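Issue: copy button drops trailing tokens. Both records pasted manually instead:
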Amino acid sequence: MSNSDEWYTPPHIFDIMALHFDVDVCAPEGGIPWIPATRYITAIDDALVTPWIGRVWMNPPYSGPGKFVNKWIEHGNGCGLVPLSKSRWFSTLWASAASIVVLRDPHLKFIRNGELKGIFMPTAIIAIGPQENHDAIARLGPSRTLAA
């Protein structure tokens, strides 16, 4: 499991956002108990082909977030956690109607195998859609609308 993308967003992020999601689109089997989502989509369900309904939470696999981010932008309603990147998918995100909060702690600790573990790259919380999504991520720090 050491090479897997199983890095879960820590509970305090959801406590601060104080927002409920209709679906977690990148969940493990059984979901994650501290993510406030009514339902979840696992890798077995394939979130890239399963329809997303309502407000989504997305913490995509960092080995390939581009297709998830593109679907998230197309869906147009939700929040997510992504790595900062110089890749094409991040440029697409930058040009979208999303807002972003670069997390103040550059070494956010994720839940991995039941323990807090850091990653080597900075992360950001993103929001698109209704104003309450943007307001929720703003509670994590100063936000900036990405689209010009």
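Record 2 (pasted manually too):
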Amino acid sequence: MSMSNNEKKQSKIGKLFRRMFNVREWIDWSRIKAGGEYISQGAKQVYIDTPKLPVESFAEAQRRLKLTDDSILIRGRALLRNSLIMLCLAVLLFCYAIYHFIWGTIHSGILSFSLFILSMGFSFRYHFWYFQITQRKLGCTLNDWVRQGLMGKKS
């Protein structure tokens, strides 16, 4: 069962043609497929109910992590300091973005505004963690943070 010279040439030409015009490689099919699977898994996590895990109390977490009251106080101060630094950075970035929008450099303004949003997110995160430490309660809600952390109302 040997192949004739004509069949060998056709298979070599076919291999060369497939190698030159490899559309799957051009569009990076493996990456597109992996991205689609990632989005699919994310959608499943969002829309499919998962059993809720038991919420750990602050005292249990403190014992598990072997934290003293002094170390918790130090960490709380560090979180507040980080939150304020990020807030100051956000204000500067917002002013810088406005400056770029006024002078017509739209792309730089958009970039600066994006960094402003990012630094506001970090500021929120650090302050939320600080709020949970000061309240000595894990699993606080956004509503708790707004009412008690920002508005100063008692629970």
